[in-house]
Every structure is written in structure tokens, then in C-alpha cells.
Amino acid sequence: MKRTKITLLDLVGIGIGQIIGSGVMILTGLAVGKTGHGVPLAFIVAGIIVAITNLCLATLGSAIPANGGMYTYVRDLIGKKTGFFYVALLAAGQLVLANYAIGFAEYLKELVPAINVTLVAAVMMTLVFIINLTGIKSAVRFQNLLVVILILSIALFIVLGLPKVGDFSPYFDMATIMPNGFSEFVAAIFLVRFSLVGAEYINEFGSDAENPGKNIPLAMIISTVVVSVVYLGVGFVATGVLPIEEVAFQTLGNVAHTIFSKPIYFFFMIGGAMFAVASSLNAVFAWAPKGLAVAVDDGWLPQFLAQENKTFGTPHYLLTIFYVIGMIPILTGGTLEIIAVLGNNIGLIFAALPIIAVMFLPSKNPEAYANAYFKLPRWAMSVLPIFCLIIFAGGFYSNVEFIGAFGMKVLFGYCVLVAVYAKVKEPHLNPTKGVER
């Protein structure tokens, strides 16, 4: 059946919805606790780091647009086994689906204390799963609706909150920017960085997008810049309206209570907090199966898993896999913090692989690099990825202590199992797929 192509505006909506999620609503308060009035500066630094990463990945998206983009980049530019390692970690990292669903339920509980968080989270996960089963365009329409309401509510937070920031001098004083020292300021940067990632997954829609070589990098850049500016405003309001001690390690609800009337407060909690989490949940279901579907086609997993629904053209088995992965932490009582940290550390591992692939693009596929609508100079294709990898390593290390020895052993064990499976399975793949390095 003929598929409707996704426009640039649709791609920007997906990018914004994927970036703006539970991160800004939960992590901002944690960052305030670590670095006080340094949060706006932390957002600026984090935005620069994320922008550099996206510049690298935008080059891949422009040069080689394809569904399953990240997986295919790693497979073709580094190697088949590494490609499977990437997609296996990506699948495991979608434990964060539970984080979005639980976050939605936790915010609803602030408004309706009697609800059952586990039940609401499970219902939300199921609802978004069903929406994505009905087709990519349905998911995009739902996403765009969420994003419009989300941006409006956060805009109200900034517009009504900024006039209540009476003193901007603390944002220029090192004593209030880094009240707990430089190390805690760096920790805050890593925290808020997690709230800015997401635009890179626009690459997964290469075959579904109109003019992908141009629109994919444009959508990545536009959505990242828009959200970075929005978050800067959130940072000023979050740290400037109330005393720092009343905001530290809290959600944005305290500040919202202060700056909003009751009706607008409810609109913010629903349209801002709850819709932010819902939009991230929806976006992950939309892009996550792309790479896994290509891996199935390559022969890494049974072919039936990539079968599509005849009515809607959606990969119902793959969507179900991610639905089950997301439901496991909900049904086993996982907490927001544990799920977020574990999912983020897994994400830092698999996110490093496409960055490494960037360095091989000019040599492994010089024609695609030369003809790309958007590309970096050759020197930047090495220097910028190395910078990103150092940042990723620092982010991973900052969470090792929280995960603990047992968690690290489980993560290491999973990586070993995936590597062994890839080594055994690789000789039996379709030889026409991928390029082994």
C-alpha cells in the first residue's frame, strides 16, 4: 500500500515531542538542587553539547537517509555485528518507556491523589501502543496535537513567570551559579542534557519523509534550537520566582502554584507536565521499531517479527515487543529514578556507536558524503565525534555509583550475551545485507 510521506513540519513535531518529555519537568528541580541559579547556564552548555552531537548525526541523515537510520549507519560504516549490538542495546534501553508512562501517572496523582499510579501508567502505555498500531500518520497527528498544547502550556509558564523574576544578578555571580562547586555544576549539565536529547531519532524516518536529505537535518536542527530556547526560559523561571530551597529537588509544580491562577495551573499540569511525558512516549513507539525491522530483514532475528498489519501497514509484532519491554518495569514496581538512570546509561552506550560511524562516512561512502545536502568538513568529522564520545563517557561514569555493582554486572552481562550471539549468528546472515568492515 502507498504510504503518506511525513513533511518537514511533521518531523519537527516528532523532534520537539521526543525532546520535551519528563526530563524538563523532573530533572530541572534536581539540577536546581545541585547548582542553584546555575541551571540556565547548565541548559546553555548542555544545549551546545547536544547540538554538536546532532550536527554529526545530521550529516549521516542527509548523506544516507533510510528507515532504521541509526542501525544502518552503524552496520554499513562500522560492521554488521556492531550494528546488531547497537539495535539490541537500543531495544533494552526502551525500558524508559515505563518512565514516561509512570511520569504521566505521577503528575496525574498530584491532581487526583486517589488514583492508582501503576494502573494509570499501564493504561497510558496501552493507549499509545494502540494509537501507533493504527499507522504512522495517526501517531504523527496525535504527536502534533500533544506538541501544540505542550508548547502553549510551557510558554505560559515562561511568559507569566519571567515578570516575577525580580533579580537577575544571581545569574552573573559565580557563588550562586556554582554554590556547591564546579563538580556539582557539571553534574547538573549531565542531568539537563538528558532532557535535551531526542532529535537524533528523526533519522529513523528516512524512508517515510519527504525530501529526507534536506528535511531530516533541518528538522533536527530546528527542533533542538526551539527546545533549547524554551528550556532556557524554564530555567530562569524555575530558579528566579521562589527561593532556591523551595525548588531544589522538586517538580515545577511549586513554581506553577505561585505564578498561575488555579485554572491555568491545572492546564499547565495537564498540558505541560502530563502531555510532555505522553508526547515522548508516543514518539518512542513511532521511531523505535525502525532499526529493529531492518535488523530482522538482515536475518538477525526471525523474519515474522517484521510482518506488517495489512490494514495499517504497521509492524505489530515489533511494536508489541517494545510494549512488553515498557510494561515490565511498570508491573514490577520500578521507580522513576532507577528506570531513568539505567535507561540513560544503556542509551549512552548505543548512542556512541552512530557517533563513531560518523568518522567512517568520508572513507567508507565518499560519494554519499560528497553529495549530502548537509555535511561537516572532513576535519570536523573526526574532531566533533571524539568530543561527543568524551562527553558520553563522562555522563556514563557519573551514574555508575547510583546503578551499583549489581546493576553494572547485569548491564555488562547483557552486553556480553549480545556480543556472543552476534558472533555466532553473523556467518548465517544474508550476505547481500550490510557491509562488514
Automatic annotation (TrEMBL):
Keywords: Cell membrane, Membrane, Transmembrane, Transmembrane helix
UniProt membrane topology term: Multi-pass membrane protein
Subcellular location per the Swiss-Prot or TrEMBL entry: Cell membrane
Keyword Translocase: no
Main localisation: membrane
InterPro entries listed in its UniProt record: AA/rel_permease1, APC_superfamily
Segments traversing the membrane: 12-33, 39-64, 84-105, 111-133, 145-165, 185-203, 215-244, 264-288, 317-340, 346-364, 376-396, 402-422
The protein's name: APC family permease
